[in-house]
Amino acid sequence: MKIIKLLILSYFLSNAVDNYGQQNWIIYSPEPLDLTSLKSHQETSDIRRIFKNPYMYALSAGDATIKDLHKRYEDQPAVIIFKDQKLEKRISPNDPRYGEQWSLPRIGLEEVWTETTGMVPTGRTPVVIAVLDDGFDMDHPDLIDNWWTNEGEIPNDNIDNDNNRYIDDYRGFSAKLLNDEHVSLSHGTQVAGIIGAEGDNDIGITGITWNMKMLAISDVNSVGELLQALDYVYEMKKLFMDTDGEFGANIVVNNFSGGIRNEFPDRFPGWCEAYERLGTVGVLSVAAVANEELIPEEDGDMPTLCDSEFLITVTNTSKEDLKIRDSAESKISVDIGAPGTDIITTDVNGTYLNLPGTSASSPHVAGAAALLYTLDCDELQDLIEANPVAAAREVKNALIENVDQNNSLTETVSGGRVNVLNSALSLTEFCGESALAPLDIKALYSQNATDNKRFVYETDRLEEHQFFIYNPLGQLVYSSKLFPTLFGDKVINLDDNILETTGVYIATLSNDSDLISTKFLYVKN
What we know:
Layout: E1 4-5, H1 9-12, E2 23-29, E3 45-51, E4 55-61, H2 63-72, E5 80-83, H3 103-106, H4 109-113, E6 128-132, E7 173-174, H5 186-196, E8 213-218, H6 223-242, E9 251-256, E10 260-261, H7 271-279, E11 284-288, H8 296-299, E12 301-302, E13 311-317, E14 336-339, E15 343-347, E16 351-355, H9 358-372, H10 378-386, H11 388-400, E17 404-405, E18 416-417, H12 420-430, E19 440-445, E20 453-458, E21 465-470, E22 476-482, E23 490-494, E24 503-510, E25 514-522
Helix pairs in contact: 5-9, 6-7, 10-11, 11-12
């Protein structure tokens, strides 16, 4: 396996062709080469070694020089000469304000988005995330297409069509009015934007889940209304399970960015039990801890002190990756840190603003948890369908046990800040997959003459890769972009019409950090 680190390629890759017809080339060799004589060529310039072990040389040269090089090393198949190419950065959504969303790449989302943006694998049942809050701008252009609707209910007919005890809960649920009439308020709209603003739609921002459906539950302003909301989540998930998906909602996570400081569970019977009850139908609950420098066990904080294995409590971290001083901490009851400073998100009347505090931290973790539920892993998807309680435990453990360790978060259960990529990678073992490996490109495989030919490759980076094929003269004859999958074989298929003739070619695969090349024999059918 030969891995070529592209540590300084950007230094010399300013132009593919200069004013004298020269082009940038790379020479690969497992042994050092003496290229001094090349400098005598009038059309050759700027020869430098860029990497050792194996040996890599970069030069600008014209066709005559390259032909001489091919002739010189034609009896040394280990020496590969190929034309250089500019690298492109990893995928990111086209939402115009995505550049302001510093927190999303920080927690590893760009890599995970190459695997899933919130849609479950083909043939699997879509999952839903419930957002419990004060109110929502249901018509916000960045949210409007991502609200869940109750297809078992006929809107505005004043009948409980799905027999869930609530009338006309078609577009979500009001914990006060017991229907789907939502007041438009900032806090809920802001939280919903972090979780599920539509991604890659050329509007505003992107959510952690680009296209997952959110169940809006509004008018949650008191303990009684919160308990009503949690009960609704339970009933809708249980209805889904009892009717084999005909009615209800396949809710896997709910988020509530609120609570009461200086209070303890014994003052609110039923509150903590609600999280345990939700766990029995496989629903994880995520909650924000107090925006105050307190220790819940000493000072009180609800629902942080609820001792439920199905509850994840979240404290606040800054752009500098430090815990915010004015946020609760505890090795017993505060589970994890997540970004909550200068978080650009949706607001009422189709606008955007910055949301500070643990109210912003909690939806980062809730969205991350929901995203893990959509990974293309048969073992995980089978578990979600057959044993949602075990799946909830698996997802929570993946989040808590795979944080970025952080010295400012030692006084939390996990000791770190959420990292969605680490969490997703941890599930590769559960899914029976081998761990991601350094960049390597295998030989060309074909089972029979009519098959598409294919390369199987490995990589340890979930980002956009560039794939090139060169003929023996170093001319580029094929190029493509690809995004590695986290689970299953990583494959590049070559249709028989890609290359014109049978012969020896050079395949090159690269990402932002590595490049690998190999010669292969292509036999045209």
